Amino acid sequence: MEIDFDKMQGLVPAVIQDASTAELLMVGFMNRKALETTLRTGFVTFHSRTRQKLWTKGETSGNRLEVVAAWTDCDRDTVLLRVRILGEGKVCHTGSRSCFTQKLPLGAAEMAAEEEMQR
Predict the structure, then answer these.
(1) Are strands 79-85 and 12-18 parallel, antiparallel or unpaired?
(2) Which domains are assigned to the chain?
(3) Cα dihedral angle (113, 20, 59, 35), rounded to 10 degrees?
């Protein structure tokens, strides 16, 4: 299956999800070479937009991401990689398990939902 790398100038978002818990761990970007490397080796490899080079997640920390399943969305411009975490389980560079740790306020809708849950 062909992935559409043209929409974002040669890159696609890669959503990384824990295969056993379905927890969303991180999002990175892949170019064609990063995706090919990921699928060939079985370990998540990204394209660094700042360094303009490939990097395999966990190559220095030991917290590698082994691919269990790979999917694309209906437009074929995003990939979802379900992974097994190897190492200490710290996926984020901040030392936490997931990069998604910063809650954003939703305003009135969030307050109403919290009030409803308290009833």
Answers:
(1) parallel
(2) 12-118 (3.10.20.810)
(3) -90
Q: Quick: pLDDT tens for 64-103.
A: 999 999 999 999 999 999 999 999 989 999 999 999 999 8
Predicted confidence (pLDDT) per residue in 27-56, tens digit: 999 999 999 999 999 999 999 999 999 999
Tell if the pTM clears 0.90, that is, is over it. no
For the chain, helix (H) and strand (E) counts, in that order, are 2, 6
Centre a 10 Å sphere on the Cβ of residue 7 and count the other Cβ atoms it contains.
Answer: 12
Give the residue from 54, 6, 4 showing the smallest Cα distance to 29. 54
Nearest to 11 by CA among 68, 91, 66, 77: 77
